[in-house]
Amino acid sequence: MSTPVVEVAVRGEGSVLSAVRAALSTVRPAAPAAVVVPAVPGPGPLAELGDDRLDALVGDTLDAVLADVRATLGQPLDRLVFVLPHAPLMGVADGVAASAVAHGVLSMARTLAIELARDGVTVNVVAADVDAPAPGALAAQLGALLGAGGEAITGQEIYLTAGTDLGRARP
Amino acid sequence: MTTTTRTALVTGGAGGIGRGIGARLARDGFRVLLADRDATAVREAAEAVGAEPWVLDVADPDSRREAVTRTGGCDLLVNCAGVLRDARVRRLEPPVFRRLTEINLLGPIALARLVAPDMAARGAGAIVNIASRAWLGTFGSTAYSTAKGGLVGATRSLALELGRHGITVNAVAPGFVETPMTEGLPPEVRRRTLEAIPVGRAGRPDDVADAVSYLAGAGYVTGQVLVVCGGRSIGAPYATPVEEAS
Ligand SMILES: NC(=O)c1ccc[n+]([C@@H]2O[C@H](COP(=O)([O-])OP(=O)(O)OC[C@H]3O[C@@H](n4cnc5c(N)ncnc54)[C@H](O)[C@@H]3O)[C@@H](O)[C@H]2O)c1
Fold this sequence. Notes:
The complex is a heterodimer of chains A (171) and B (246).
Chain A: E1 8-11, H1 17-24, E2 33-36, H2 51-73, E3 79-85, H3 86-90, H4 96-116, E4 122-128, H5 137-146, E5 157-160
Parallel strand pairs in A: 1-2, 2-3, 3-4, 4-5
Helix pairs in contact in A: 1-5, 2-4
Chain B: E1 7-11, H1 16-27, E2 31-36, H2 39-49, E3 52-55, H3 61-71, E4 76-79, H4 94-122, E5 125-130, H5 142-162, E6 167-174, H6 187-195, H7 205-217, E7 225-228
Parallel strand pairs in B: 1-2, 1-4, 2-3, 4-5, 5-6, 6-7
């Protein structure tokens, strides 16, 4: 009996999207899976984050993430992975909008992991430094989370930074 | 004229925790502007704790500007206004999610932007954001935990950005505290919540106020989350969620 090919639904328009797509081309998911790549805003000082800009960069972006999550839940789903850029999670000066979104998604994922456990859905976060010297890391990690054996990994936050963040307090 | 009295702006000041923070800061010698959108309740609370009442809707840009102007120079901003109305993700309505984002996350960031220039000019200031233990994840709490997580992220980034101006930015993450916000919890949820608290009791507004008072004066602590939860965050996992009602 041949195993049916399982598609991975990819949603979101984050800066790491092309790296995610490239990585997924080598991944063979063992169950219905979705990867959400939130469009975390770029840097900018607090002084320039006026009310409208704040609404758009943080409010609209988080709304879009929720819409993506709801869309994925409308389909058969066993594995959900959020891929975020690692820098705003670790924290950067002049990056309040980016950190607010990235950490908002991190906490959303923590809650979803708790909520969806009873439905057999795993939820994990991969924080990627796509400039780190580890080209195969994202594919290997997505393979582990989406492939056979991934059903027992949930609520985890995995930093693929090739050590670029060592010695700093994780969120 | 120079003045040595420091001014604190406390949002959500009519609520259980905000009122406790206001009382503590007034005892610490701050001039406290207790601000809340509930005009009647904030007047009553301010009178009780020796603060000045102010009507503020943290989700309204004009109202935010008026409150900061009223401080006449803010030394300490405590972002405590917050709402908890939530549901499991499958039942969560997008407008509810947005509203929680606006009040619990965007309002605090916008207020930080308004107070920062004046603090920077004086080379000193403190911002304390009241987040929640829910930032670590809580069943039935997608919108609330997202917003509080975002607030922790903002805290971290603001601390890095504003540190060089003498401004500290920290978060306090309370666990279960007995206030009007939590009085509507179903009895079974309350019982299980209390059982999971290692110190064996619910939090009190004073527990949170102690943490805020400390951070208000701790000039070498920044970008941190002080979790005030009676040990709940290191205790039992969410193995058997009971919040079915949401
Ligand atoms: N009580 C808890 O167990 C608990 C736990 C963790 C975190 N918190 C956080 O602590 C803070 C205070 O909570 P509380 O328990 O005192 O709740 P509360 O409901 O007693 O007080 C919240 C106050 O915020 C005010 N408020 C709401 N929306 C506002 C707006 N748009 N503008 C101005 N004021 C507004 C309300 O009028 C109310 O007075 C909140 O940010 C809450 O999320 C509470």
